[in-house]
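re: that chain from earlier
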Amino acid sequence: MPGMPHRVALHWFRKDLRLTDNTALHHAAKEAEQVIPVYILSTWKKEHAWTGAKRQHFLCGCLDSLAKNIESLGSRLIFRAGDACDELKKLIKETGAEALYFNRDYDPYGVEMEGRVRALCDDLGTDCRDFKDRVLHEPDELLTGEGNGYKVYTPYSKNWLDQEKPEPLPRVKSLGSPAAKSLSSLPVPTLDHWKLSGDTSGVIEPGERAARKRMKDFIESETLFHYAKQRDIPSSHGTSRLSQDLRFGLIGIRELYQRCRETAKGAPKAAKNSVETYIKELAW
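^ sequence. v structure.
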């Protein structure tokens, strides 16, 4: 399209497995003629220190759902496996991508990888576009009066609550990426990719649509209005049950925050207090 800064761009999916309220994907779709979506699979086998069959089974379902949603836009989710920096380098060269888009991560491994990816883009002359997405406020946005990070939650949460929140973004409706269809790709992963086996019964329904239904059910039911009293009662259905959806980025935190705020309007005082309690959990 005339006036777009990039002919071809890559969007690197990580912990943002959705099309709605996805900051980097939203900007990529606005700024590039073609957006090629990619997910890089890890290559460990049989066992891992902090994951197992059920969690990876849920991830596989989320990736399958995402791939189908992308196909409905006339594009294709490209799967590669290996070191993310190495695989992105190959894809940039294969596609002639002029830009790489991704949402920032905050764990040590994610930060280290992002540093390597930015250096790679500098070496290749590729525009590197990274965005805040997983959080409403990044660590360096909320500091004490002395300019340091908080060590105590209560003053941090007060500052967090006082800050203006970013608005949610609409669902991406087009990626315009015919080039994605000709690229080599691994299939949508199953547990066999990691040589995993085990009981996967009881795993909740994966994918963006299922997560959005869980969000809707939580906000529109009595659960949110009784959250403050029931969240710590094991026998009660008193929690949001959205932790895995935020962890894998099946829903956007901006939309969740906004919908909670809207639901609280006109609600009785006790219900408002429960909504505030839940919002403080989002801050935590």
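The beta strands are 6-13, 32-41, 78-81, 99-103, 127-131.
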